[in-house]
Design goal:
Elements (H helix, E strand, L loop, with lengths): L1 H20 L5 E8 L1 E4 L27 E4 L7 E8 L12 E5 L6 E4 L13 E5 L23 E10 L9 E12 L2
C-alpha cells in the first residue's frame, strides 16, 4: 500500500517542483500584450511535426522551428520559449526545455533562429533557463524535440516577451505572451 501511494506522489511532486522552475518569476506588467507568432520555415504548419524534427530516440535529429514574433513590447530584453508536449502531463510546462533569447535592440518584430535539440551548446544570444526533462527518453540538452515517435502527441511552445531585471532594485516583468501549436507528431 505504501509503495503505491509513494509511486503516485513522486510524479506529482516532480510536476510541482518543475512548474515552479518555469519562467513564472516574471510579474505581469499592467498591460500584457498578445504576441503575434508565425513560423519562418514553411515546413512547419502547426498541424503536423515535419519529418526529421523528432528526437534521437525516434531516429530523428530535430531542432526548434525558426519563429517570427511581432507586436513585441518596446521594453522587451528577452524572449522565453517553453517547449511542451500537451499530450503528456509530465512534459508540459516547459518539459521539453525552456530556452531564452536575448533581445539586444528593441524591435516590434524579432526573428528567433532555430536551436538544435539534444545539446547544451546554444547559438549566440540564446541562454538556458531550464533543460528538458528527459525522463529516461533521450539525451540531455536544452531542447528535446518531439519524442512520441509519431505517436500522435501534440506539441506547443509558450512564448513570453519579458523584461529581465539587471539589478536587485528592479522587477522582472512579463510584457507579452502567446502559445503556438507546433503540431501533432504523426
Amino acid at each position: 500500500m505504501y509503495k503505491k501511494t509513494y509511486l503516485r506522489i513522486i510524479p506529482l511532486l516532480f510536476i510541482i517542483i518543475f512548474s515552479s522552475c518555469s519562467s513564472g518569476k516574471y510579474i505581469p506588467a499592467d498591460n500584457v500584450v498578445k504576441l503575434e507568432v508565425k513560423f519562418a520555415d514553411s515546413r512547419w504548419n502547426g498541424e503536423v511535426i515535419p519529418p526529421g524534427e523528432g528526437c534521437k530516440r525516434c531516429g530523428e535529429y530535430g531542432s526548434t522551428p525558426e519563429l517570427i514574433i511581432s507586436n513585441v513590447p518596446s521594453k522587451t530584453n528577452a524572449i522565453i520559449m517553453e517547449y511542451c508536449d500537451r499530450s503528456y502531463q509530465l512534459m508540459n510546462n516547459g518539459g521539453h526545455g525552456i530556452i531564452g533569447y536575448r533581445v539586444e535592440k528593441p524591435s516590434k518584430e524579432i526573428t528567433i533562429p532555430s536551436v538544435p535539440g539534444h545539446t547544451f551548446d546554444l547559438p549566440e544570444n540564446f541562454f538556458l533557463v531550464h533543460e528538458h526533462i528527459k525522463a529516461g527518453m533521450d539525451k540531455a540538452g536544452a531542447y528535446l524535440p518531439p519524442c512520441s515517435c509519431r505517436g500522435g502527441n501534440i506539441y506547443s511552445v509558450n512564448i513570453k516577451a519579458v523584461y529581465q531585471a539587471s539589478s536587485e532594485n528592479e522587477t522582472s516583468l512579463l510584457l507579452g505572451e502567446y502559445e503556438l501549436i507546433l503540431g501533432k507528431d504523426i
